[in-house]
């Protein structure tokens, strides 16, 4: 009996109902964050931000564009290699990605970005990148089920996939505090085995015997290569998109770039060796050439060295290509798992390799490699803070307002002991606050520097907090003026001489320049 494939009622119903649900949920929960809200002007003044270029949008948008192209063009066209399902590869990819990013903004928002003050999800450019990452896991799962599921089933697959992704992401990043820059344990390994599980459930015994369903033609392979090239070119952005600004982000691009280049050569070599007359198999070229970028994901920002990146790319290219040659047929014949797009070879195994490489690289980290400031001994920092806290507690002095850019350090202390703007912040996923105030100083956690906040309001000037004497050459000029005025014999309400008024106003106006001052925190060996 032939199954009814008419989706004239079910697909429009699902699309309409779910989109209306998204509108309602967004209306209730989602708002702009401080960098995308109209109150950005007030935020700039409050946090002493001098230029709009410091808005995270200008740091992240280029990477967001690249990742967005990968999601909608790269993954879509990569699945066009099957001549019968080319439209499904691109068209249904478009459908589930558009739904998935909306649901991902909500799910990830509830887990990571929910503001405890008003119970709203505050979104900005980084949220959009993370939602694309979340959807990527569902698109990978679709690759294992290509040709076996309807659009309505794909929507259900995405609904549960995004939900499960948000849960496992929360466990891995927030509870276990794993460092996974490119999301290869979180995104690719999860997506691969989620898709393989669904494919195992939907096993079709006669699928392998249908060349019409499984075969490709010249133009379908060419379209799939377009997807490969888009993914290959933009994968460095995928790995570095949400890495902290600076050397780590720069290093992530370099390491991924080299690993991708290395995996291309090994894939071509193994593919040629495996064929009788040395001809290349397009399935290998379309997929395994990307394995280097995937395997580099977790360790992309680490000091793995350039030649280490080439080694990772070399090994992942070999493993991925051999997977297509031997593991895929074995899985279908023995395990009854039909991996249509070979996601286990492209995402599953390289994701595992990436996790192993990341663990080895992190375990071998040392101060000689990362430098005094780059290598942070977290256990030592926690121990010093706890001992100091206990010592002060003996004298009834409470050490609190603790601030650190290490999530491990912050989570070692109860939330009430943390700085006000860090109490509800998860530093493993949330962006760092621009500033933390202490005794009038502004401590910028992103640049690890001190600066001063000077008010523009016209009111009597009372004091400048400078407990460390950073601006003593400036404040001493004001003190000297007060001393000179005090020495002169004047009545309390008498007018100051014009010369002193001009000097005072000149000095007061010069204080505005303190906004531009940044003093790097310095570590000195004892």
Could you explain the architecture of this structure?
By secondary structure, this protein is mainly alpha-helical. The chain folds into three domains: 58-364, Ammonium transporter fold; 378-423; 434-526, no CATH class. 60% of the residues lie in helices and 4% in strands. The chain contains 19 helices and seven strands. It has helices spanning 10-29, 40-46, 56-78, 86-113, 125-145, 151-175, 184-201, 211-214, 218-240, 247-274, 282-287, 291-295, 306-334, 343-363, 367-374, 378-393, 407-411, 472-487, 498-510; strands spanning 30-32, 114-115, 120-123, 436-438, 441-444, 449-452, 519-520. The strands form two sheets. The protein has a four-stranded antiparallel beta sheet, with no helix packed on it. Helix 3 (56-78) packs antiparallel against helix 4 (86-113) and helix 7 packs antiparallel against helix 14. The longest helix is centred in the middle third of the chain and has 29 residues, at 306-334. The chain is elongated. The mean pLDDT is 84.
Task: For the structure shown, list the relevant keywords.
mainly alpha; Ammonium transporter fold; 60% helix; 3 domains; 526 residues; four-stranded antiparallel beta sheet; single chain; 4% strand; 19 helices; three-stranded mixed beta sheet
